[in-house]
Amino acid sequence: MSSNKKYWKSVEELNENSSIVETLRNNEFVEEIPTDEFLGDAASLASSSTTRRDFLKYVGFSTAAATLAACEGPVHKSIPYVVQPEEIIPGLADYYATSFSDGFDFANILVKTREGRPIKVENNKIEGANFHANARVHASVLSLYDSLRLKTSKIAGKDTTWNEANAKIKASVAEAKAKGGKVVLLTNTSASPSTDRLIGQFLAANPNAKHVVYDAVSSSDALDAFQMVYGERALADYDFSKANTIVSVGADFLGDWQGGGFDAGYAQGRIPQNGKMSKHYQFEANMTLSGAAADKRVPMTVANQKQALVKIYNVITGAAVSTSKFEGEDVVTKAAQQLKAAGSKGVLVSGIDDKNAQLLVLAINRALSSEAFNPANSRQIRKGNNAEVKQLIADMNSGAVHTLIMNGVNPVYTLSNGAEFATALKKVKLAATFTMKEDETALASSVAVATPHYLESWGDVSIVKGQYAITQPTIRPLFDTVQFQDALLSWTGNAQTYYDYIRTSWSGAKSWNQLVHDGVAVSEAAAGAGAGADFNAAAGVLAKAKGTQTELVLYTKTGMGDGQQANNPWLQEFPDPITRASWDNYVTVSKADAEAWGLENWNVANGGLNGSYVTLSANGVKLEKVPVMIQPGQAKGTVGLALGYGRKASLKEEMQVGVNAYALYSNFNNVQSVSIEKEDGEHEFACVQLQKTLMGRGDIIKETSLEIFNTKDAAEWNVMPVVSLDHKEVAATSVDLWESFDRSIGHHFNLSIDLNACTGCGACVIACHAENNVPVVGKSEVRRSRDMHWLRIDRYYSSETTFEGDNKVKAASSGLMDSISTLREMEDPSENPQIAFQPVMCQHCNHAPCETVCPVAATSHGREGQNHMAYNRCVGTRYCANNCPYKVRRFNWFLYNKNEEFNYHMNDDLGRMALNPDVNLRSRGVMEKCSMCIQMTQATKLKAKNEGRLVKDGEFQTACSNACTSGAMVFGDVNDKESQVAKLAEDKRAYHLLEHIGTKPNVVYHVKVRN
């Protein structure tokens, strides 16, 4: 049977009398263009040359389109090379294989450069390169051009040279050695074999020295558990493609849990093949990407999660550890039984910050002999040691630390007792920090050494045991910077450069040149064996854990992560996949708790979302004026808050947003007992959940259950809309208002989007920004519905906790009035809704309604299926946006380039180095939207033509399809009948968005199937 399931983006949409929703539905632009500002400028009018195009601007189809008055494209003069480098051909991109490693994120990537400038991150798809770029890694190229980077070393806040800074550090190390004082190296997780060797050599030369690893977001308990069982401080790796039953207890493995990167394997099992797909249970407090993807999600406090984990342990191993009663126990028992039945095809993961909980995870997966559980190729990341960090602070306070040298860390900001750390720094004889930014810790240190960006550096990284990856520079250092590794070489008396050190120490099967070309080398790895552990004792301790009245669950956002790239405007403007809010962090609260505490969210006339304020108190620390976001699916008795915000140092004023949640990250535990007090005032969110709504426009998301998918004909669950023709119902796609062209000759591009594989991660959104020079507009403009994203990922809530439950309720209704009443009741939000993500961009309709209404033919259709925009012809009438049923066109309200009002990367010379020269910057007053990356398809054709061959399947890509690691997006030529996209377009799950209106889009979606 088909689903007429009701979807809602926000609670406001459930109010049938809401004038706000009705206004947003019927009015694409809720605010008028401020025409007086421009038409009243006599100087601009007098200096304009009134061409026919200008005349149309002023008095033609829309006087509001005069926003381009007297503004023609700027002329830029360029200086050619005096001696052109051999490896650079103007107009052609070069790609370098490298690796990303910042202690929190790790990835094997390719970097696209143009005329010597890195401009885009892409995934390295060579065999062995298994860690792909997330949204933050894609955005990291913009952080290279951060105008607030530390440009030279500093001593006591004053500019100096590296030689002077190095001499001071060397003298302090020597003095400490002579006097018996401690020297401590405090670093993040480098995961770099060569760096570990250099640190080992430094420690050997300085017996009074110690190395402490500190990660802002700790995985120390999981590391301790793994070390106890397997004898090494590491994390287990998982391949979810090998699992038929997946149970997660508080682990957002599609997010940042243990380094992330699990989405590709997970998505393989989520696409129904041969009638089968994996079953996913999620028990969690906050609504996460993993919870959104789960077949069965149970909101649960962390205290109850611990009981649930013990319960699962009992079922799997046969143990009899007593547990307390808890809500959702029946679902946990069912999940445990299915997990046991799955045996080696089952896997369990947990994100609980407790060593005993992590021991049970290892015990359960060993008992299952889980194929998805991989302790041999362990992850060599997130190696911070909580106990050693606490001891370091104690030693600093006691005056035992003579010299402290830090690299890649910002403890004054990220430690919950950061102020105490800053005070302790004053008791250290010399504190030196190697950093890219003059951050909070650099300001508190006596020596700050400017370090290069990873795109300016040599290095190596071993993300998992058995994989070795290289980091190579893609541009000469922009500033007077020094790598920490070069400093270590200097301190140990080694005259080699770091590049020479890495090269001479490489001894793998590949040659050095081949390694640099590929970026990755792979070898065999074996699991270690530890002293073992008493799993029953661990279960007994965990079962006795008690909850608190209100739990604060700290987490990292998909966009911001641990906050290292807080000055990156792409990430600040990136809408959170779940809440759809940008430029903010906030407390997420369940609807039930919000009502009990008197907290509210409400929409205002322009679609903007407002909310209450609260003060959070935990362990004697208060966070005041924290905005509230009511989040469906949040477990009662819990609230969520994102880390990574609230920074001030080395950030532009526009990026100094939110509160610092690290202040509540006491003892490195992401769960804290918290009290909440409502504050006066209201907060304005930049939330896009009500903007560009498709509500009330028919089937947006099509979905069905696996049982129906396997037993019913596709016509029942993938319903083809019908229209009346000569008083007969016929398929909507068979009726045309236009005469169709013959599109069987040449290329015809389609983009396929599988709703089962899309996790909402947003990597495609940032990749689109980088490829297409999408401007950042800031919080105020986003709030006004003026964001410029060419690609958005709509997040829809469904009305029931299960798909089957929805259908049963609907099927049980009888008669018109009963059906209407039932559907209205189904629109009432569930406390635990299902979620669907749907990427939406220009659909490149073959019968595009935008093309027929453009008075100047600025938008037209190409022979290869793309809908084109001629920006020079566009006069900004906005007819096309009003006529677009998908709401995918963006109007340039302002000139975002070189504009002090938009002080982001396009407003300074350094930031503009990230711009793609293949895509022009759009002027004020024109419409823009997804081009299906026509510059990329043209380059692919040209390359094949120059090589005298046909284009191979998979060569055609867009920025979004190239960035998609889950395989949800596939792009290609449907006229190549052997291509993957042609087969996907003919799949029985394939459908087009709003098919009944007859636009014949070139973007194909696939029905979501729930197990």
From TrEMBL:
Entry-linked PROSITE patterns: 4FE4S_FER_2
A matching Pfam family: Fer4_7
Protein origin, superkingdom: Bacteria
Residues of the 4Fe-4S ferredoxin-type domain: 749-779, 833-864, 865-894
InterPro entries reported in the protein's UniProt record: 4Fe4S_Fe-S-bd (IPR017896), TAT_var_transloc_signal_dom (IPR030948)
Cited Gene3D superfamilies: 3.30.70.20, 3.40.50.740, Formate dehydrogenase/DMSO reductase (3.30.2070.10)
SUPFAM superfamilies, per the entry: 4Fe-4S ferredoxins, Formate dehydrogenase/DMSO reductase, domains 1-3
Protein's name in the database: Quinol:cytochrome c oxidoreductase iron-sulfur protein
Protein's organism: Flavobacterium terrae
